[in-house]
Each structure stands twice: as structure tokens, then as C-alpha cells.
Design a protein that fits this description.
mainly alpha, 120 residues
Length: 120
């Protein structure tokens, strides 16, 4: 499942930012200011010479858990909202392509069944 989270660096902030915002509106969660404040706290741990890697990793883990739930809910909501109309659009396209393919096949069959001049 993690490979699906790989994305273009230019689109990661707009896509996941919007999904997080939607999730935050649906289930609540920390906002951008709290996220930045906690990142600064982690930066302080990183710059502190007496801090251990365990402190940094536990801070990163706590930050991840607090922000993951709204992100997952937002991704699900946005994905579902886009998937429903995409299904109907794709289904309509497939039906049109199949109708076109049947019409072409019937035209080829009619052409093969026509009597040819000079070959009889």
C-alpha cells in the first residue's frame, strides 16, 4: 500500500493539503499552525546536542499519528467523491466504444458479403 503514496513533488502539497483540509473539516484535527509549531519543536530536538534519536523518533511518531487520521479520512472522502462520477463517465465511454466497435464489425461483415464485380 505505501507505493500508492508516492506522488509528484510538485503536486504533493496541493493534493494532500486539500485532502487533509477536508479530513480536518470532517473529523477535526490539528491545523497548519499547530503542525508548524510541532515541527519547530522537533527541530529544537534535532538541534539539541543532548537529545537522543529516540526522542526525535517518538516526536515524529506522535506528529504522524495526530495528522494521519484526518489525512486518511480526507483522502477517502475526496477519493470517493471523485470515484463515483468517474465510474459513470468511464462506463458511458466504454458503452460508446463498444457500440462503435460493433458498428465497425458489422460494416466489415456487410462489405465482405457484398458481391464483387468481375469475380463471379
Amino acid at each position: 500500500m505505501p507505493p500508492i503514496w508516492l506522488t509528484n513533488p510538485a503536486t504533493i502539497l496541493p493534493i494532500y493539503g486539500f485532502n487533509y483540509w477536508v479530513g480536518m473539516k470532517l473529523v477535526g484535527g490539528p491545523g497548519l499552525h499547530e503542525f508548524l509549531a510541532r515541527l519547530k519543536g522537533l527541530q529544537g530536538i534535532l538541534l539539541d546536542e543532548t537529545a537522543s534519536w529516540a526522542q526525535l523518533l517518538s516526536g515524529l511518531w506522535a506528529l504522524t499519528l495526530d495528522f494521519l487520521w484526518p489525512l486518511w479520512i480526507g483522502c477517502f472522502a475526496v477519493g470517493f467523491a471523485l470515484a463515483v462520477p468517474a465510474f459513470f463517465l468511464a462506463r458511458a465511454w466504454v458503452v460508446r466504444v463498444r457500440i462503435h466497435m460493433v458498428a465497425r464489425r458489422e460494416a466489415r461483415i456487410r462489405k465482405l458479403q457484398e458481391p464483387r464485380n468481375g469475380l463471379s
